[in-house]
Amino acid sequence: MEQIHKRFTTEQIKALLKGYLEGNLDRREAEEILGIGKARFFSLLKEYRENPEGFSIAYRRHTPSLISMSFEERIACALLEEKGLVDDPSLPITTYNYSAVKDRLTKQGVDVSLPTLIDRAKGLGCYKPRRKKKVHDREVITAAVGALIQHDVSQHRWSPYAEVKWALITSLDDFSRMLLYADFWGAETTWAHIRSAEDLTRANGIPLRHYVDSLSVFRFVQTRDSVWRSPPGYSLQRFRLTG
Predict the structure, then answer these.
(1) pTM (predicted TM-score)
(2) CA distance 189 to 170
C-alpha cells in the first residue's frame, strides 16, 4: 500500500484526528479511511496531541550521523576485548554477546546501534555466523522421575575475572530434565562428589540409578584398586626373619 503521506495531506489527517478527539468519528472508521492499523493511528494521534499546530506527515529522511574517530576506537577496543573472551579456551564462552558490548559502550558514553556494532565486528574479525540448530533427537530412557540421575562435572574459569578454574558439579533428572543439584567446588575430588551426592539425596531422596562419567573416582579396576590382588609387574617377596 502507498505510504500515508502520499495519499493524504497534513490538513486531511489533522481533520480526522480532530474529529476522533471530539467524538465525531470512530477510531475504526478513521483507521479504515487512512488504511492504517491501531498502532500507527495512536502514534499519529500522540504526535498531534503534543503539537496540533506543528503536526505534519511530510516524509523526512534522516541521514545517519557519522561516528567520530574516538568513538570508533572505543568500539574496536570493546569488540577486541570480547574476542579475547571468545578465543580463550579456559572460558565457557563461544559466541559474541553484542548486546552486552553495546551496554558497556553506552556506559562509556558511546551510543551505537546493534546493526552498526555488528558491522564493525565483521570488519575486525570479531564475528561468528550463527550455527544452524540441530534437531534435538535425544530420547528419554526413563519412565518416571527419580529413575535415573545424570551426574556430571565441568571445569572452567567461569568468569573472565576468575584466576583459577572451578568445578561445577551437577545432577539432572533424566525424565523431567530438572536440575536437582548444581554447585561450584574448588577442585574435583572424591569428597566433592560424595558431598554432592549426599546433598542431592537429602533434598530429593535416593534415585534408582546414578549415571556418571568415566572419571577414575567412579571406576573400580580390580588389578589397581583391590587390596587382595597385586598390580601387574609387582611380585610379592618372602623374607625370612633370622634371629
Answers:
(1) 0.46
(2) 14
Which grid coordinates belong to 196?
554432592
- For cell 468519528, what's the residue? 25
Which helix H or strand E contains 172, and what residues bound it? strand 166-173
- Candidates 157, 165, 170, 158; CA nearest to 213 is 170
Buried-state track 63-98, b at ≥16 Cβ within 10 A, e below 16 = eeeeeeeebeebbeebbeebbeeeeeeebebeebeb
- Do 78 and 104 contact (CB within 8 A), yes or no? yes
- Give tens-digit pLDDT for 115-145: 899 999 988 888 887 766 665 555 667 888 8
Domain ranges of the chain: 4-50, 69-124, 149-225
Q: Which helix (H) or strand (E) holds 149?
A: strand 149-156
